[in-house]
Structures are given as structure tokens and as C-alpha cells.
Amino acid sequence: MTAQFTPAGTLTAEDLGTIHLIGVGGVGMSGLARLFLTRGLPVSGSELREWPSLAGLRALGGTIHMSHEATNLDGVDTVVYSSAIPQDHLEMQEARRRGLRVLHRSEALAAAMTGRRTVAVAGTHGKTTTTSMVTMVLQQAGTDPSFVIGGEISEVGSGAHHGTGEYFVVEADESDRSFLIYRPYVSIITNIEADHLNTYGDLANLEATFAEFARLTDPDGFIITCADDPGGRRLAETLRAEGRRVHTYGEAPDADLRLSEMASSAQGVRYLAAIDGRSLGEFRLPVPGRHMGLNSASSVLAAYLLGLPLEAAEAALAAFPGVRRRFERKGVADDVLVYDEYAYHPTSMTLALQTLREVAGDGRLIVVFQPYRLYRTRDLQAEIAEALAIADELVLLEVFGPGELRQPGEGSAALIEAVSLPAESKVFVDSWEAAPAEVARRARPGDVVVTMGAPPISLMGDQLLDALLARADGVSADGVTTPGGVSGGSAAIGGTVPGAPPGSGTAAGASAVGGAPDGAAPAVG
Fold first, then answer.
1. How far apart are CA 464 and CA 319, in angstroms?
2. What span, in angstroms and rounded, lies between the C-alpha atoms of 165 and 180?
3. Which pairing describes strands 158-161 and 268-275: parallel, antiparallel, or unpaired?
4. Distance between CA atoms of 484 and 492, rounded to whole angstroms?
5. pLDDT per position as a tens digit, 323-357
6. How far apart are CA 421 and CA 424, in angstroms?
């Protein structure tokens, strides 16, 4: 157990009193705030930028301060922070000076779970999607679960809900070991791969921690892992040898829930499922990708083991709308289709890009990628570069790494050299503002463009669509009319894009490959 975190116990959400969340606009923190507000608790939060989630929190009665100030804590009983908030943050220091209760996000979330049967979804990839699928299956079965997810289910428009039922579905984050706080009734582990090595050091330590998490599962409950994933398979073998109740899913012949005849196309994915040799029928998803089918199988298995009607799982998955920032279609402009995708780990990037290739058909795939965290970009550079090489064209932004200091030669300057695309097919853009113009210059009718990576990149999709529409109207990104509706290339736009990472600069233009800045950059984020 990580020393600074307290395991789940008898503390309830109502025990927290008036709650203040530092950095309330992020997906994880805003979801928690929404949960508390819909539970009828007084909530405030502080932010520095106008995130899309804030309007909804205000509508629910939340008080949002657009600054970090000591006075924001007046009348507050409990202060909640995430791992992104430094311990010397002004409001953290003030909370401790006043003697207020200070909880990590996961500790506050654990308090909200008290008295419920928790279904915790962990894993290197697919957590958000799988948590969303499990939630929708439970909803379809009429159980009205509470849930907190690291993304928004597109149909629901929310990543959190306070339900009346016995189940509480939660996305369990392993990045800082905080998932060891939870005491699940059901633990689902989608896969285990090398990531967050700044926390764990190596894969062996990471796998050992996942095993520790699984051992926290209620003896009356059960553990679900993926038989197709080497890490999940090793975990299942370890836990079964200890006498624990483990069930597996996948296309592997020895999976408990066996998938067969899986097929994916731009229209979606389908497969047949069987357990112990008994057919459970066909399941369909309206979103493409074999990995989506694999994720959905864990929700089918969970429903089966909980004794819920499989018709509910079939209906929920057939209507699954996807999750915001997971293969999210943003729109079409000038015959170019624009998607947004959260993937930043090489495995999830590869799966997403392979699926987008199916969608692109005869068109080209253009990727606008913003890496997330310097340590990951450095440690997994070869694997990330290999994934990016699936694209036909690459527009690369600088790494988003809040609190990290980029040294000369680190980050995207090194990454772009490692991507095995022709020099004319990849470009490093040295400012946020230059990227939409660069995409408008490169994209052709019939192409698919995807913004991919760190959280800020999700804010660029609408700007890409605007740039493509301007091109169709014969206007370049700098507002100059061009003959025949063809943009004249990257141009200075000026200004700062809301939500763009601080320090991204306002100087426009795209640096050719090898032309990335050589000097040390200021702290990213």
C-alpha cells in the first residue's frame, strides 16, 4: 500500500461535509464532483481554464472558482486533490494550515463506494471503454448502478452518476498505485503491459501490484482477466494457484468465456460467445475494432457471473455509443473525416490506428499526435514510433507533461526522427496554432484525420474542422483568400488557443523533419 493513501473503510461521502476539489475541470475530478453533487452534497472547485465540464457542474449547484486562492477554502470541510496537484500547491498548503481533511481523489471516491458492491475495472488499456460497457449493461439490466468513469459515455453525456442500486462501477487507476485503496466485489483486469515505469520501475513490479489489487477482491466476489493478454494470463495462473476465484475471456481456446468468429469493419464488430461449451449467442457493437469486441466480452462475462440476463448485455452492447475521446467522430469538412482518440500508449495507439485504417478505406490516414509525459515518450520511443508509422501522414506536437522539464533533444524532437515515414510525410509543428493549417495543407478529400494523445489535443478537433471548411471556402488559415480553395500552407495565426498546453508558444509555422528546436524548453504544461 502506498503510504500516503488510506484504504477504504467506513468513511462515507456524507462524512466529508462541504467538499472542495482542486483542479475540478479534469475528467476524473469533474466526474467525482458530479457524483457528489447528484448525491446532494455541497461542492466547490477551483480551476484556471474553462473546461467543458464546468458548465454542467455549475448547473448542478457547484461553486467554481476560476483561480487558486486561500479564500476558496472558506466554509470547506474536505479538500480533494489528484496526483497531478503538487503537495506545495497553494490550496493544499492552506488546507493543512487550517486543519481540514485532505484526501486524494481515490480516497474520496472510496468513501462514496462505502456500502455498495464495487465493480472495479483496471488494466493498461481499455479501462474507460470497459467501465462504460459494464455500466451500460448494468443499467440495461435495471440495477441503476452508481458509476465514476475516466471519460464520458457519449450517449449519457456524463462520466458519473449516483444511482440507487447496489452496484458501484469505477475505473481503477494504477498509475500511482491508488487503486490499492479499493475493496472490490468484482475486479476486472483488461490487460497488463509496461507503463508508468516511473512509478513501478519494471514490468515485474507492475504485475506484482496488479496481483495485489486483485487480492483485495471480496472472497464472495470474483476476478476477471483476459486470456489473450500475456500479463492477464500470468495473473490468472498466479491467483488460481492461491485458490482465488478467477474467470477469463478471450479468443484463446482455454478462455472460460470463449469468443469465436470475431469480425470487425467500419460498421462495427461482432462475435459469438460460449461458456463451458454452451453458446451464449451473438454479440454486436456499433463501433469497430477487435479490441472493442474483446473489451465488451468482459462485461458479458461479468453479467453472466452476477446472474443478470444476457439479453441486457446484448441490448446494451448493440446500442453502445462509444466514449468521448475513444474513437470519437468529430465531424466532416471538405470531404475529410475527423476523429479524436485518447490513445497515447503504443499498444492502444496501434489498435486505434489499425481500426481507423479500416474506416479510411481507400483514403489516407493523417495523425495529429501529442505525446503524453516525457518519461513515457523516452522509455517507449521505439514502440510509439512504430505505431505512428501506421499513418500515411504525421503532424507531431510537443510532449504534454505537466511539471516535467524537457532537456535538449528530448521529447518530440527525438520521436519524430524515429518514425519510419518519408521525410515529406511527417512534420513537427512548434506551436499549437500551426497544426490546423498544416492539416488543411496535407489533407485530401476522402482522408481520415485523427487527433490523438494527451488531454489537450481533444480541444483541436473543432479547429481542424474550421480550417478544412475555410479551405473549402478558399480561405487559408490566416484569412487570406487563395485561388481554387487551396490553402497556402502553414501560416501564422497568432493568439493562444483555449486549452492548449501552456508554453506551446504562439509562433506559427511547421518545422521540417530535423528542424525541431535544439534548445532546452521551459517546463511543459
1. 29
2. 24
3. unpaired
4. 21
5. 656 667 788 888 888 888 877 878 878 888 888 88
6. 8
